[in-house]
Task: inverse folding
């Protein structure tokens, strides 16, 4: 397995809140979120700390003979326990994350997605399989117009963000890794025979917009570009499209294997 990865912070002067890593048996991507004004009073560790700790825990347990849901549940529990005595882990603005995992084991390629990260699995002779959860995007889209023109950091901007986050980890809403390991029941999981797989990729939502927002290619085209030009070139072209279309930037991360 040959693994390549690239990441780029979405905001100059701000920490990249994505995590990416790989071990011989798999790959992990964690897209951290939750940082708004005042969040440091709720969790002094911050979003990047949460994403890095959760990603490291997942990588460390991938080789265990357990389901990916169980691996994610224990990882969430472990990281929550690390800071529940010092931080308000259940608060609506405490750190949370989308997660994408691939594991290569026992002749299978297994996948898990929780939140708005994306898994792409290329297969011989057929279109790539794409695992993603549209629930957060669908709900966030209804808030996009209301946030238009409102200064980031203003009281009204904060109020709308909190209203959006009220849909998080609740029935009828969207589901992410945060403080409650039971969210893994909402994760999208599956597998396919490893001998059918030609390439794989994990993308944060800041990188998947290459296909699902800007339509610069399809998922098969994305896998082809990953092989020929690498993940850094895809992220560079995402940044060009954001400037052209006036779209706000976000942390963008890709991990791919072939």
Result:
């Amino acid at each position: 397995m040959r693994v390549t990865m690239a990441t780029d912070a979405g905001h100059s002067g701000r920490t990249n809140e994505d995590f990416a890593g790989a071990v011989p048996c798999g790959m992990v991507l964690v897209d951290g979120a939750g940082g708004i004004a005042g969040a440091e009073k709720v969790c002094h560790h911050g979003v990047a700390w949460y994403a890095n700790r959760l990603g490291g825990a997942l990588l460390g347990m991938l080789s265990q003979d357990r389901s990916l849901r169980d691996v994610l549940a224990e990882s969430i529990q472990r990281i929550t326990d690390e800071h529940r005595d010092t931080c308000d882990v259940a608060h609506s603005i405490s750190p949370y994350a989308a997660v994408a995992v691939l594991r290569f084991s026992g002749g299978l390629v297994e996948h898990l997605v929780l939140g708005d990260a994306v898994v792409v699995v290329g297969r011989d002779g057929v279109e790539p399989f794409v695992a993603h959860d549209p629930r957060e995007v669908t709900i966030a889209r209804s808030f996009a117009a209301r946030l238009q023109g409102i200064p980031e950091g203003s009281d009204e901007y904060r109020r709308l963000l909190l209203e959006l986050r009220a849909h998080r980890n609740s029935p009828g809403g969207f589901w992410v890794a945060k403080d409650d390991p039971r969210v893994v029941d909402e994760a999208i999981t599956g597998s396919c025979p490893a001998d059918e797989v030609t390439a794989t990729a994990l993308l944060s939502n800041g990188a998947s917009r290459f296909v699902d927002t800007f339509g610069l290619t399809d998922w098969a085209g994305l896998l082809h570009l990953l092989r020929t030009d690498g993940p850094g070139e895809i992220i560079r072209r995402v940044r060009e499209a954001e400037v052209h279309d006036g779209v706000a930037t976000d942390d963008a991360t890709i991990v791919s294997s072939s």
